[in-house]
User: Fold these one by one.
Assistant:
Number 1:
Amino acid sequence: MSTLAVSGVTSSPLKQELEQLFREHYQMLYRTAYSMLGNSADAEDVPQTIFVRLLRGGLPAEMIKSPKAYLYRATVNASLNVLRARKRSKTGGNIEGIERPAEVFDSAAEEDSYRRLAEAIAELSPGAAHILILRYVHSYSDAEIAKLTGTSRGTVAMKLFRIRGRLKKLMRSLGEER
Amino acid sequence: MNLERYFERFRKLPKADVDLAWSRVVDRASKETESPREFQSVSEPGQRPSRWRWLAAAAAVVGVALVALIPMTVGAPAVLEDGQGSRNVSFGEVVRGGTLRFPDGSRVQVDPQSEVSLERLNDGVRLSLHKGQVAVLSGEARVQQGTTERTIQQGEVASTMKALPEKFETVSIRPYISPTSAGQRGGGGGTSFSTGCSWNPPKVDPSRFTVPSATAFTLLTLAYGTTIHGDVSGCFDLAALNLIAGGPDWIKTEHWDVQATIPASLGLTQEQIQAQLKSGDYPQLKKMLLAMLEDRFKLVLRKEVKEIPAYVLTVGNNTSKLVLPPGVPPAGPAPTPRVPQTPQNAQWWAGLPVGDVGGEPGYFYAKEAPIATVIPFIAREAARPVIDRTGLTATVSLWLQFKPTYNYLTGRAVVLSETSRLAGFPPLQKVLEDIGLKLEDTKVSREVWVIEKIERPSEN
C-alpha cells in the first residue's frame, strides 16, 4: 500500500483531516461493524482501530481517491477478520460475541434461523459482504452501490442475487451441522 | 430467511457517541505501540498478518528450489490454518498462504504470495517452497538449498528470494554536445525551461535506462519519483511545488547524456516497467537513480517533511456538463490558445483519440478520459497538489480556458497586461465550478529534498 503522507499523531493537518473524516463517517462505519459483529464493543473498536492506524501511517493513496469507499471497505474487512478470529477460537456451536437481539423472536426456530444467518454472513467473501451490508443495513440502491464500489448496476443486481443464494446454501449446511 | 427483517434492527441503532470515540482514537494512537487486535489487513482483507514481512521488504523472486525437512509422522502431514479456518493438507497439494501446523508441534507460516507443497519421504515430510518464503513460527526445520543445508529456528525465514539491486550495473554520464553548438559542453546545448526541466523523457527497458540531454534537476525529479509517460511533465509538477530546493544554477541549465545498465536481477518485464513509470511508483529505479546521483554527482541531500497548501477536488450532484455521451464535445467555444495547431472547433474534437488529455498554461482539455488524468493539469495550473475526492468512475470530457496565474513551463507567476486576450477569461476555479467541479483549500505533508552539495559529474 503506498502512503502519501507519513505523519505522526501530532501532525495537525493529517489529524484534522482524519478527525473530519471520522466525524463524517463514524455512524456508518459503526453501524456496518455492528451489523456484522453483533455487539457494540467490537463495533466501536473496529472503526477506531482503522483510524488509529491511519493516524500512525498516513493516508493511503486509495483512501485519498475515495475516503468513504475505502473506510467502508476497511470496516467490512476488519469485521470479517474479527469474525474469522472468533471462529478460529470458538468452542461452542454459535459465533461468540453476538449480543442477544433486542427483539423477541416468534419461535425458537426463528431464533435459530437468525443465528445461522449471522454465521453464514461471516462466511461470505469481503466483496459479497460489502454489497450485502450496503443494501440491507444502509438501504443503498443498486445504483448507489455501483457508484461506491466502482461497478455497474447490472453487476450489483447479479451479485446480490448470487449472495442471497449463497446465504441460503450456507444456512442449509450450517443447519445440517447441528 | 428474511434479510430485510434480519437487518432491520441495525438500521434503527441509536447514534454512537462520536466525540468519545474520537478521543479514544487519539488516546490509543499516542499510547499503543502495537494494535491489540488483528486488523492488520485493512485494504486486503482475509489475509493473515505477516510477522516477518519486513524481512522481505527488498526481495524479488528468483527461481530457486528450497526444501524444509520435517520429521515423518502418522496421519495427515500437516494442518493448514488460514482465514477460512483449519483443515488437513494432503501430500502434493499446493498451499498458498496460511500457517502449517505439523504433528510434532512445529508451525510454519506461508506468505500469501508464496506457494508450498508437502512430499512424502522415507524419514519425514519435505516442504517444498516453489515461490516466495516461509517462516518458522515454532520448532525448527532443516533447509536444503542446492547442495547446502542449514537449520532455521523459530522466527527465521527461508526464502527463494534475494535482495533487489539498488544500483545500476554500469553508468555513463557525458556532457551533452549540441549538434548546433558544437564544442559547448554541459550546458552548451539541449533544451530546458527555466524550471530546470529538460525536454527529453527517459527511455527505460528491462536492461537499460537512457536519458539524453538531461539536466541534473530533471534527474533529481526522476529520483524523487514522478509520473513518466512519454513526456517530462512530472518534472514541471515537482518544480511547481518546490519539492526539490537549493543547489547551484548549473543543475538547471547544463545537460548530460545518461546511459545506465539495469541489473538483470531486477527481474521486471517491459510491461511492468512501463506500468511503474506511468504510475510514478518505481521504487527500485528511484533507488538506483539516487545512488547514481550520490556516486557521480557527489549529491548530498537533506530530506524534510513539510506541510504545503493543497486543494481537494470534489464534484456536485450534477455531472451533466462533465460526463458526456461518447463523441459529444463539451459546450461552449473550444479553447483558442496562441499556438497555431491548437483546437478551434468540434472538428478538432472529433479528431482527438478517446482518452486524450492535453494543454498549456491557461487551457487544458480531456476527451472521455478518467478524472485522474485531468488532476495533474489542475495541479500544474494551481501550483498545488490536488487530492481527488470526486469519486467519479465515469470518464469526463472537457475543454477549459481560463486566466492563467502561474506558468508551469517557466516556473513564474503570470502577469497579464490589461489588453491581453487571456486577461478576459475567468479564473480556473470559476470555470471548474461551471462544470460542477470544486476546489477547496487543504494542506498535505510532502517530503522536500534540500540539496546540500552537488558537483558536476566525474569522468566515466
Note: The radius of gyration of chain B is 28 Å.
Number 2:
Amino acid sequence: VRTLPLTVLFHEGPIARAYLGLMLHRGLRPKRILHLVGRRHPGTGKAVGRWLPRPVRMLYAQQLQEISMSYWPRQLRKDYPNLVGNMTRVVAAAFDTPPELFEEMTAAGPLERYGAPVQRVLVDGLRDPVLKGILTGAGTILFTGGGTVPKHLLCLDGVRFLHVHPGELPYVRGSDGVFWSTLVYGHVGVSSLYLDSGIDTGDIIATARRASLQFSQKATDNVDAALLYRAVFSFYDPILRAHMLLTTAADLHEDRMLPVGEPQIVESGTTYQYMHPRLRQRVLRTIFGA
Amino acid sequence: VSAILQRLREYKSGIDKTDLVDDDEHSVASLIGRLLDDSVVVTPADRLALEGLGRSIDVRKRVSRNYDAAWRKPVGGSDIGLGSGIALTAAFLVACLKLRNSTATPSPQSLKALNTALNVGDLFTLPPQLEALMSQIIGEVL
C-alpha cells in the first residue's frame, strides 16, 4: 500500500467515501484522515447531544451525520434497485471501478479500514476555530465538502486545499457541474485544482473531458426527476471526482508533493448556479435516455 | 424570434410604479427598461448586471428593488412587486434570446439568463401567455 501525501478532510457522504474507497481499491491510502463531525444536525441545524459526555456525543453526532448524509443513496438502493444496478454497472465499466465500491460508499464502515490514522474532531462547520490549529502545516488537504473553506484556513502556513470539481475549468464553475456541462457542451468535464477564495477559480492541476454516460431509460420507470437528480449525485458524480483524484495523484509517493497548479484567467470562465428543475429535466432526459 | 421579442417587450409597461421610485441605473426597474428596449444587443454593463443579479436571484430566491454597483448585494429592504416580477421574467427571457450564439453550441450566458428567468418565474404568478412564451423559448434555445 502506498501512502499519498494527502490529509483527507473527511465530510461524511458519497464523495468522501468514493475518494477513500477508490484509493483503497488501487492500493493507496492518505497519510491522515481528519473526520469532521458536526456539532449540529445536518438537517435541522440544532446542536446535537449537548447533554452527553464528550466521547458519547462524538459517537452520537457521527452516527446522525452518517445517517443523514447517506440517506438518499441508501433510499435509492432500497426503493429503486434496477435504477441503481444499471447506474453502478455503467459507471463501474466507464471508470474501471470495482462494483462493490458503490455498496461500500453507502455502507458507512469505520474509516480505519482505509488504512490511515483517523482523527475525529467535533466542529461547528468549517469556520470552527479549532480547525486552524489542527490544520496548520498539514500540507495538501483534500477537501471533500461541507461548505465553503473560509479565507483564514486558505491562508494557513504550509497548507493548500485540493479539490476535485465536476466541470472542465475554467469553462464550467459553480454548482451542478455535471448538469451544466451536459446541457451546454454535450459532455462532462472534471478538474482538480487548489482552492482559493473564489468559486472554482484556484490554480488548475488537471482537467479532463469525458463523454456523458447514458443510463437505461427502462430502469427509470416510475422514478421522478428529483430522485434521478439525487441518483446522479449519489452514484455518478462521486466516482467522476474520485477517478480524477487518482489520475492526479497516481504517480505520487509519500516523499513528493502534489503537482503545482496553473493559474486561471478568472474572466474567461462561467460560474453557474443550481440548475432550475425545468432545465434539469432536459439534461436528465439525455442522461437517462439510453 | 423577433415576434417573441416583440411580445416580451410589451411587459415593460407592467413595471410597478412603486418600483420606479428612487430609480437609478442599479435599480431593477431601470435594468428591465433597458433590456426590454428595442436594441438587439446587450451592453457590457448590462451583461455584468445580468451576471450579478442572476446570481443573487438564483441563490437568494428573491428580488430587491435596488442593488449595489456590482449587482451582488441588495440595497434597501424592499422587494419588487408582481408587475415588475413579471416584467423581469420577460427581461431575462429577452436576454436569453439576445445572448444566443450563432453557432450550434448553446451560449452559456443565454442559458444562465434562461435559468434565472425560470427562477424569477417561480417567485411570481406569471400570466399564461408569458408561460407559453417561456416554453416556446426553451424549445428554441435547447
Note: The longest helix of chain B spans residues 44-60.
